[in-house]
Amino acid sequence: MRVDVLFAPSQLAPALMTGRVVAVIDVLRASSTIATALANGAKAIVPLAEAEEVITRAKQFERGEVKLAGERRMLPIAGFDLGNSPREMTREAVDGRTVLLSTTNGTRALVGVQGARDVVIASYVNFSAVCALLRTALRGGTEVTLLCAGSDKQFSLEDAACAGRIARIATKRINGVQLNDGATAAGLIDKRYGDNVDRLLRECEHGRALTEAGFADDLAPCAALDSCPVIPIYQDRQITKLGPDRER
User: Fold this and answer.
1) What's the Cα-to-Cα distance from 165 to each of 121, 131, 160, 189, rounded to whole Å?
2) Which residues, in sequence order, are CB contacts of 32 under 8 Å at separation 6+?
3) Nearest Cα to 158, choosing from 13, 45, 32?
């Protein structure tokens, strides 16, 4: 039984997806934004790789039923209702609505996962909830892949640190779990920062870039451990919240 951490979607292979639970991690900011939207009552999130797909898909909805959201190079997409910020996913903005979301890294990583048993979206804001699901999967003999969305197809410190923390907690006191080298390395990064997630997000390259672009206020909500205790499940091309109305 294995837990594999992949530092970029380019590392994905069928053997690391088929029959597994795959957790997609994009701390800054797609995973945090998705979890926040669901916690604040969004009906569903539809992740799309390209902005043009958002516009096309929106035509299938009544205007009041849907919100268009996303970013390119950190900046909100012109003409969309929302950017890719957890601060924008307020209950007033998203309650009862479907959010069509396209981001530079996170949604592209998500739509590339094929053949998994379950696909969940993970971040610090829903850390414990996702870990509980992954522990259940491992105890039942299902292997786990933690996929870091990365930044521009490259390694990102914050996603790796989150993956390391998830791997450590999800496998605690479960015998016979093997970690790949990526999981071991991610664990060392998590150990360096520990509970100081705020420092991690300030120091990582993408956190610095967001600050320079005027989005420093997004770092704190993305670092807020367990602030949105939901499990976003990606199935049938949409993300909904696992719960009484949506069982695996």
Assistant:
1) 15, 9, 9, 9
2) 26, 86, 123, 124, 125, 221, 222, 228
3) 32
Pull the structure tokens for residue 184: 């071991």
The pTM of the full predicted model, rounded to 2 decimals, is: 0.96
The per-residue pLDDT for range 157-200, each reduced to its tens digit, is 999 999 999 999 999 999 999 999 999 999 999 999 999 999 99
**Residues in the chain, pLDDT under 50:** 247-248
CA neighbor of 146 nearest in space, from 107, 108, 112, 186: 186
Q: Decide: 25 and 159 in contact? Cβ < 8 Å.
A: yes
Q: What is the distance between the alpha carbons of residues 177 and 18, in angstroms, rounded to a whole number?
A: 18
Rounded to 5 degrees, φ, ψ at 193 are -95, -25
Per-residue three-class SS string for the chain = CEEEEECCHHHCCHHHCCCCEEEEECCCCHHHHHHHHHHCCCCEEEECCCHHHHHHHHCCCCHHHEEEEEEECCEECCCCCECCCHHHCCHHHHCCCEEEEECCCHHHHHHCCCCCCEEEEECCCCHHHHHHHHHHHHHCCCCEEEEECCECCECCHHHHHHHHHHHHHHCCCCCCCEECHHHHHHHHHHHHHCCCHHHHHHHCHHHHHHHHCCCHHHHHHHHCCCCCCCCEEEECCEEEECECCECC
**What was the pLDDT predicted at 44?**
98
* Residue range 9-24, pLDDT digits in tens: 999 999 999 999 999 9
Cβ neighbours of residue 62 closer than 8 Å, sequence gap 6 or more: none
